[in-house]
Sequence to fold (482 residues):
Amino acid sequence: MGSVPVGDSGFCRRFPNGLGFDFGSDGSSSSMVLDQERRAPSRLGGKRVGAGILDAKTAMAMKSHSEAERRRRERINGHLAVLRSMVPCDDKMEKAALLAQVISHVKKLKRNAAEINKSYTVPSDTDEVRVEVEGDMTIAGRLMVRASLCCDDRPEILADLRQALSGLHLKTVRAEISTLGGRMKNVLTMTSEGTFSNVDKHLFVASVHQALNSILDRVKSREDFLSRASFSNKRQRISPF
Amino acid sequence: MGSVPVGDSGFCRRFPNGLGFDFGSDGSSSSMVLDQERRAPSRLGGKRVGAGILDAKTAMAMKSHSEAERRRRERINGHLAVLRSMVPCDDKMEKAALLAQVISHVKKLKRNAAEINKSYTVPSDTDEVRVEVEGDMTIAGRLMVRASLCCDDRPEILADLRQALSGLHLKTVRAEISTLGGRMKNVLTMTSEGTFSNVDKHLFVASVHQALNSILDRVKSREDFLSRASFSNKRQRISPF
DNA sequence: TTCTACACGTGAAGC
DNA sequence: TGCTTCACGTGTAGA
Fold:
């Protein structure tokens, strides 16, 4: 991959004196270039002069042009080299494949970030129960479920959750509890102990949903009770911490 | 940005008949090309034939060559277009700047992922207490602290934590609890209620560290006690869920 | 005008 | 051998 500059291409085709750009000393050295130009006239504007002498100024312009282009290439390839070191890929991977790899890597990172953020949410002001199956497929015959409950912060909710979920044969792999300003959000990641068919899956999700909703209802009614009895401020913060 | 192909460059310099590649019908149409070739002989090997007729096979090879190169460019630019739509950038941003933007974007995503993973860790098999100040600076005069405790899973640890931290005037903004295979990991994000100088900060971190370590010690000694008394398996899972 | 960024066709090199 | 990749210098359009 890659080739070192070895002469013949580009300038050396057009300026075959092999010396680069020492125009101005001897105009005759570019007579062949002139002949070539006569056959296929350049449209670069004023590149030719009447007697067949290539304009020195134009030559310098072309030199700086090609050098600018070289710098541009180095800039782009430099960035590509950095990307090559940042994504998991072979050192000899070609440019297009490298870019494809970068694309898939960025997509993966974004997917992970979105996945994490789903459970990282700070409790909101609206009560909410959400239950979803983790991934589209059951992994190793087991069901992975993420359930979240957002409601007013009550210390007894942990026990309520435990009780509500106890009949569902779930193993809690991960629990996340956020409290803020008298609100709380619980996010539970759980696996089933048995295997599920697709039909069972939906029934199961529904039953988890119902279990969490019953807790939410209890929190609401208790809140109403407390509110009616004027026992405490609705927004009082009661956190386990 | 960009220019449409308009003739004069490349093939049309070498094959200025303006008709593309209908060689074979009339060899004389490429006599000028031959002259050009004589001045700067190609090294592509076998491109010339004795009488000055450009080999038709070579012409086809060059045609397929330039077309392959065009396809390659389209592939690369296609990937660049995808990246342009994935990172926050102007539509008219040049290639090098786009790649620079991609680099910084990937770095940002990786940094976020690493930051999240610090607290997302699944409980490990080694006991650990970690306390660190969130960010280098105190925000709005307050101290944000992240403390984590990884140890054997005991249901009473939540109460222990609450008690241990009660004297430190901390408000728990976020609590995360993971249990797996009889181990548990607590990650607490807390803010101080007062303001801190740099010196106080370190003292404060040390006291949080000490508080968590005392809990860890208690878990360990209780474990030893249970172990000595043969009450239960050391790895028995006792989870609040 | 000059300066840039782009697409192009090309020679070389690797397989 | 033919096919692919890369770097190169160049023509052209826009600022």
About this structure: The mean pLDDT of chain B is 71. Residues 1-10, 13, 61, 64-65, 68-69, 72 of chain B lie near DNA strand D (CB under 10 Å from a C1').
